[in-house]
Amino acid sequence: MKIREIVEHLESLAPLAYQETYDNSGMISGDPSLECTGVLVSLDCTEETVREAVEKKCNLLVSHHPLIFQPLRQIIPGTGQGRALLASIKQDIALYAIHTNLDNILGGVNASIADRIGLVNREILLAQSAANPSVGSGMAGDLIEPLSETELLRRLRELFSIPVIRHSPLRGKTVTRVGICGGAGGFLISNALQANCDFFISADIRYHQFFETEGKMVVADIGHYESEQFTIDLLYRVILEKFPNFAVLKSGTVTNPVHYYI
Fold first, then answer.
1. 224 three-state secondary structure
2. CATH code for residues 3-101+230-250
3. Do 3-101+230-250 and 104-228 show the same overall fold?
4. pLDDT given at position 179
5. Confidence of residue 261 (pLDDT cuts 50, 70, 90)
6. Whole-structure pTM value
């Protein structure tokens, strides 16, 4: 099987046209016409995950976050990004990223979060166009069973193995409707309010963004890596369902660059 066949399957699920304008999803490097010896799926593409792909004899590394996000002026071994790219090229490891196009579909990254906390009646928070409301940023849904704010925070801590959750002031009210956005989703706070969410779960929330709720909703920052960690399981599943007798492996490398002192 060619690398191209796996790429085509991924793009049939999350077309590149769905990515945000600032993004760099798709083939990052490598030859899609090569026979694929195996696929390693990861959240990030780093030196360590490239090395892991080599060790596990996988010549396709599919990551959520692109190794090249901003334009590069140099590809040199003086940076981790440069070393990862040089190593992948030397070892004939093709790099593929499926980033905001996977964020922006109903069955993508946010669905992995919604599945774990139990959300039904799901809808996109910010559609890319009025003509296609099922594609866009964030997601809102209803809890199967209403929870108190502290019960939801406790559930998030357990389900996502989060040592610390930053949040806006609690309102002492029951949570029935929840907004979510894997990764940096502070830009969706107003959309979550418009969708009548009691609670909004995301990451990388800036100080002043916590004020934007004006006491009408609780915002919880569960961490960027933590919110997207199950994307590995999602990618593993969608590739294996299409190619059940093929070597698809989950990366065992923890790429989270954020650590907590508790």
1. helix
2. 3.40.1390.30
3. yes
4. 98
5. very high
6. 0.96
